[in-house]
Amino acid sequence: MRIDQPPEPGDEVIRDGDAVPDEPVLEQRAPEASDTSPTEPRTRFEHAEIPPPSEEPQEPKDVAAEHSDQYEHPPDGHDSSRSLEREDDSHSDLEDSREQARPPDDREPPTEAEQPDEAEPPADIEALDEDPDEDADIEEDSPWTPDEEPSTPSSDSTPPGDRARPLTDKEWTEHLAEVRDGLDKARAAGLISARMHTINGTGEVWTDERERLHNEIIEDFYARAADIPCDFKAIIAGGLGGAGKTTVLREHADIDLSQYLMINPDDVKEAIACRGAIPHIDGLSPMEASDLVHIESSQIAKRLARRAVADGKNLIWDITMSSTESVAERISALRGADYRSVDGVFVDIPIETSMRRADGRHREGHEEYRAGRGMGGRFVPEEVIKDQFDQQWGSQNRRTYEIVKERFDNWSIYDNSVDDRPPVLKESSRHDKSAASSLAENSNDKQSL
Q: Helix, strand or coil for residue 302?
């Protein structure tokens, strides 16, 4: 580039925070015969002459480093594809003349503390923990690889550097207190979906918008069950939270889960969460706030079951069996729909084991959420599980099963109370029937003798 050529946009010299005028600073050429340099720094308006370039060749200066704040956001019309490091020897000449004309204070590049807000964040993200205002900017740059992209953005306010490590026990205890407090305040504010999205807040007739949401969820579940046969077979599986019902059904009860539509209200809660339809609570994951849609998820699950029963589709009800009346109603509905096989499976664990596993699952899900994966873990208060205690059977859930088990075509009870040990089949109607059959055969043999 020639010395008399006006600099391109973005090359203007900015001093003392003044705006750059429309005309280029270096519009006037220096007289060729002049070899003097100004002894005092002059403003851009005092420059009548520009000293000639030095006779000694100098290293080209890094324009991008000196004017990074100018090139961060080039003005309209600026060609960003133009290389900032030109190989033309005239570039260094132009830079020399600029350097001499620049006041001494402007010659030093800005320090790290003076970098503009738009500068790239440092590589060490944990260093930003001291400045909470940086969190929002860091959230924009995902710390995960493309294969680990979160399914939904995390609303957790934890700085990204802290997400690389699990919460300590103390931090987890503090988070549980935050969850309880957040849920209590949300309920007091009327954020329960059955109150917010039903006519007059009765929890019975949903608004048109919410009804469309329910239909969408049901259609989605049913579409995934398109290949499940309609053999009029059903299973009702019960047990406390954390009992491991799905594992028992799949690995120990000889049940091919691909041949059944699984209906679980907790799965419906997650479907609602994935659609962003759970009321937001600051500091909580969507599944931690899912208790606010408990009534709604139960109604959607029942609608899905009624549709499946009408078609005779094979299904599994995955429930806790905390209510004897509710289980009895489900059995009667299946019988009334001509289901030829209605079996029961119960997985038994103590109250203490249920509380520990429920907390473990919640914590594991929350760590996944902090890493940007999933909807978080579901929070089940300890007192809710403790309320299920029964002096005779260990839990009211087990008591319910004992009351209704004879109404099943086949029933079984598994003990899954010991960690790292396979569930154990404790009782089964098939075994009882086999034993009764053996006794009858032995009796007949004796009579024949």
A: helix
Q: How far is CA 105 from CA 33, 65, 102, in A?
A: 29, 16, 8
CB-side exposure of 102: number of CA atoms within 13 Å?
A: 17
Q: Which residues of the chain have pLDDT under 50?
A: 1-3, 11-17, 19-50, 54, 60-107, 110, 112-156, 435-439, 449
3-class secondary structure, 425: strand
The pair of three-digit structure tokens given for residue 225, joined into one six-digit string: 């069950």
The span from the CA of 268 to the CA of 264, in Å, is: 7
Q: Between vectors from CA 111 to CA 109 and to CA 114, what angle results, nearest 5°? A: 110
Pairing assessment for the beta strands 315-318 and 233-238 based on DSSP bridges = parallel
What is the token pair recorded at 433?
Answer: 């029937």
* Predicted TM-score (pTM) of this structure: 0.62
Cβ burial of 18 (10 Å; 0-12, 13-18, 19+) is exposed
Domains in the chain, please, with CATH? 1-122 (no CATH), 172-444 (3.40.50.300)
Q: How many CA atoms lie within 13 A of 142 on its CB side?
A: 14
Helix (H, G, I), strand (E, B) or coil at 300: helix
Please tell me the predicted confidence (pLDDT) of residue 365.
97
**From CA 289, how far away is CA 306, in angstroms rounded?**
27
Tell me the pLDDT tens digit for each residue of 255-299. Answer: 999 999 999 999 999 999 999 999 999 999 999 999 999 999 999
Q: Is the dihedral of CA 311, 316, 320, 321 positive or negative?
A: positive
Cα-based distances in Å from 177 to 291, 415, 433:
16, 32, 50
- Which residues are within 8 A (CB) of 286 and not within 5 positions of it... i.e. 6 or more apart? 152, 273, 276, 278, 375, 376
Q: Which residues pair with 206 in a beta bridge?
A: 198
